[in-house]
Amino acid sequence: MLRSLEIRATLSELENAHRDHVFWEPTIELSLDCFICERVGRTTGMELGDERAVCVSGRDYKHFTAARISAFDVTSQDTLLTVRTVVDFWWAPFQDAKRGGEARPLSRWVRLHYGWRCPHQETSGKGSIQTNMRRPRSARCGACDTEIAVDAEVPSIRLLV
Q1: Which parts of the chain have pLDDT scores under 50?
Q2: pTM of the model
Q3: Phi/psi class of residue 144: alpha, beta or left (left: φ > 0; alpha: ψ in -120 to 50)?
Q4: Domain coordinates of the chain in residue numbers?
Q5: Distances 130 to 48, 75, 152 between C-alpha atoms, Å
Q6: Which residues, including other chains, have CB under 8 Å from residue 67's CB and lie 6 or more apart?
Q7: Are 80 and 103 contacting, i.e. CB atoms less than 8 angstroms apart?
Q8: Count of CB atoms within 10 A of residue 64's CB?
Q9: Please, how many CA atoms are within 13 Å of residue 65, restricted to the half-sphere of its CB?
Q10: 136: cis peptide before it, omega within 30°?
Q11: Distance in angstroms (rounded) separating the CA atoms of residues 27 and 8
Q12: 119-157 residue pLDDT tens
């Protein structure tokens, strides 16, 4: 059955000079239970515009799976940069083929990516936030070593359908 997850994340305390140069990248990884390889908690990567995602079901094995980013909305307000992403995916109940646990439609982990351009050094960089990190955590510009934002809140994951 078709399911949807809503993922929200915020970078706060955007530094003045970098404020207009920090952006969310439309690429995510999240933990999904994959009905194709029948494994729970697989890292699944996707990019906005792709019609399918990639399930990393082992060290050397990857396969396509039925998941995609269906919405990617970014809002900026004063010193906050927020992203709301909706992921549509196919889900079916199963028992994990290796460990025997039951599949669940709600993801337990997500990683979101952001980028920035340094207005002082005219270079760019990338970073990411994820649910299983200690907070608060600073995002620093690799060029000028300025703290450009703070990752203070755990990204939220909510099952929509």
Answers
A1: none
A2: 0.91
A3: alpha
A4: 2-93+102-159
A5: 18, 19, 11
A6: 32, 44, 46, 52, 53, 87, 88, 89, 90
A7: no
A8: 12
A9: 33
A10: yes
A11: 13
A12: 888 889 999 999 999 999 999 988 888 999 999 999 999
